[in-house]
User: What shape does this take?
Amino acid sequence: MMMTQVLNQFSKWFLHHQSFAGYIEPIMQTFKPAWRANLFRAQVAEINELNGSFLSVLLKPSKHWQAHTAGQHISLTVEINGRLLTRVFTLASSPEQFKTTGLVRLLIKTNEQGRFTRLLSGALRVGEWCNISAPTGEFVYKNTQKAATFIAGGSGITPMFAMLSEHLNTTSQKVSLIYFAKATEHQCVDELNKLAGDFSHFSFLLLTREQSGDITRNINVWENPDIYCCGPAGFMQTVSDFAIKHDLNYYQEAFGLALPSLNDDSQFNVQVNSSGYVVSANNALLPQFEAKQLPVKRGCGIGICHQCQCIKKSGVVRNLKTGELSDNGEQLIQLCVSQPVSDLELQL
Amino acid sequence: MKNINFDQLASDLDTIKMDTLGKVGQQDADYIRAVVRKQRVCEWSGRILLMLGFIQPLLWVAGVLLLALAKILDNMEIGHNVMHGQYDWMNDKQLNSQHFEWDIACDGQSWHRVHNFEHHTYTNIIGKDRDFGYGLLRLSDDFKWRFKNVWQFFTYINLSVLFQWGVSYHELAAERVFIGKKKENREGGVSHATLKQRFFSKGARQLIKDYAIFPLLAGPLFLWVLAGNLVANLIRNLWTSTIIFCGHFTEETETFKEEDCVNETQGQWYYRQVLGSSNIKGPHWFHVLTGHLSCQIEHHLFPDMPSSRYQEVAPQVQAVMQKHGIDYHTGGFFKQYSSVLKRIIRYSFK
Assistant: This one.
């Protein structure tokens, strides 16, 4: 520990890198593929295409990676054609499974238009290396002494798999899962059947939005269950309103992004260093930030000098020079040529 | 200006740019990481060999050369290009223009701020681009002759020998920060106190590293290592200075007046970048050692294109210039460098 600190300080002062690991990274990579400072390595153990354009990926994290709590997510970094692309995914396997097999599972909905998931099955071949972060997230099973109802929409099922397989044997309360997906796209139904066979206090419903109308109809309010919800924004809003109305404990996890079609006067919320602002799509971000007196650096104003560059943590911008849309994940963007296309989170 | 179809010129060059950027990918990422790897190997084998000079002085010489090579790779091909944002698309935290720092006295972020903006936007515009002559040398008739210009050849030699400190002082715009000279249009968002602090902090760390820490770590071989570091820094200074002078100060490179560049179109901006720069021909390893500043014209046209692509686009750019009847300044190293020396001497006199 002491040694690491000394080396890191030495690197900061004299080797011009924030950490010694960062300095030796390219050397280490010749022995250990994808070795990166501040990230864990993971090797692809298995990858399968599932129905409804889902990928199931089994990863073997390196030995220093500390097991997650069921329901938490990691960020997955994959080098695709020279670019390090990062996305956040919830682990769809339990810590118990990690302890016994050394593997974690991701269930990833692939998107033909996506810039990341579309390329994943090509980039993540068995035996290839990628990076994962330490697990984070607050969406975990809170109280095993109470009945619980899990409500999942689409790929919102992933944290539920982790929580159910981890906790069903630690609770005797009634646990139900209401799982919405398109008709043929319910994932891992075999596993759910097996859980229902093993644990009589667990039951589940597979539904589609079209067939059931009101998504809260199957919540048994008289059991006074804690509600755990994960799905698209509007979906969760409905469930959340319902839970508040009936005075039920409510926990949710947001994911994904609904991309609106570009309309020049659309307004977006921008989170800059954790304060919120509203910007319009009718101008680049830089002049709008200047008008709001945010601490931005203006350089050439035409996308040459990279002085106004900042880290985009999430959201999509259009590069006005090339007309290209950015990724949704973490990236460097030049504010002077970036037009907002979605809500954004930036770090200045 | 000559009768040139600037819109066509802009579209020809934009086509080259978009085609090339479309090809950028794994190959370029692997390239820059391989250069970083070579830099690390040179640096550490160099530092170790410096300590073996007592066995055989030739080992010390090899150590000096390797360390100088490491510094040159770090400053030129890696540092300069990474800080231009050429490799930002990789999203690699170690190769990112916002955080990169190099093995040279000049504070990287101060350089990043001034160089990319002043020099690359206002290339060779007298009064705007402070890199033209660095405020020390008279290199065109745009500047009034002064008596100190008589010995400017020796000023140039001194600048080359101490180049890293010259760059550091210059990018800080020290005459403003320390002496208080005012010039509008260049007040950055960074306070003078911060600039000063970064100047001294970075400079001191470089001095401590090369002339205290590593010599002390060598114990009884203190002097071998100290002298080795000194010579390696000198070699790096001479090399970088020489290459950089060849980029903008050959006899044929042109200068521009501020009023000529008001409301410049993209095509006119491209035109000025080409006339204000000159290339050096050479083999691949030579281009790498110059940080691809040997492709200065391409670098100025497309400052954020990965350096790994400059050799590939150079013939395409040259063909476009030929088509439009625009001069494309290039030549071998000795031709270009002697041209620079002539220019320095020529403008020593009225």
Notes: DSSP finds nine helices and 18 strands in chain A. Residues 39 and 228 of chain A are 30 Å apart (CA to CA). The interface with chain B takes residues 13-14, 16-18, 22-27, 29-30, 37-38, 79, 81-86, 295, 297, 299-300, 304-307, 309-311, 322, 330-332 of chain A (CB under 8 Å).
